[in-house]
Amino acid sequence: MAGHELLTVETRGGKIRTQVYKGGQGAPLVWLHGALGVSGWEPQLQALSQHFTVYAPVQPGVGLSEGLEELDDVWDLTLSYLELFDALDLQQVALVGHSYGGMLAAEIAAMAPERVSKLVLVGAVGLWLDDRPVLDYWAATPKEQAKATFHDPQGLVAQMAAAAVPTEAKARNDYLVATIINIAATLGKFAWPIPDKGLKKRIHRIKAPTLLIWGKSDGVVPPVYADQFAARIAGARVELLDGAAHVPYLERLDAFGPLVTEFCR
Fold first, then answer.
1. Percent of the chain having pLDDT more than 70?
2. Domain 5-264: which topology?
3. For the sheet containing 210-215, what is the strand order?
4. pTM listed for this prediction
């Protein structure tokens, strides 16, 4: 990732080895990725790095981060992130999480409220409504996934995402296998089939000022979930972005960056 240093941080006596992208200057901000891993990070991290020292860890089991077998459940995973913060000497951070990463960010803020100065949840999973279920990525077709993820499935951002998939047969197969591994290591292990792992019982513990950013067209985690999070986090503020679905940090980079920067500063 251009302009970012790549660290390998060991925790639990070396049993967990986490890749962490670090760049920028200023107060620390941690970005927690969604189920697909590092895909699409760079534009937003570059923008945030103009104002913060950004740390973007790659979850164990995703990419080259190791130690997934050491983590049994959501609470264990949450604790491992706090141990990572300790190893990086991050006593208090602004914490931003997208989708699956939003669930983890909320869990961290609930488990250790004193460690999170500001919390930004972007299209976060973690709650559940029977009448408005979160999209089951395992069951959805590629066309359904694209329609749910992008405001305009034929637009520039969607085209750029499609262009990132290699066309050469072996490279394409390797890419698809890596994607499946990423989803299995994240949603598959910690949030499937229903991403309600008890956060609703702990979410009241969040004390950090919280910003909820959703794309109005989000078909993965419908915008009604922003209201559900807001109802459970005291003082939380909701921002719904036009022209965006599940990846507002890409589709509305113009609005997303300033919103997060102003809020976290």
1. 98
2. Rossmann fold (3.40.50)
3. 5-11, 16-24, 53-58, 28-32, 93-98, 116-122, 210-215, 237-241
4. 0.96
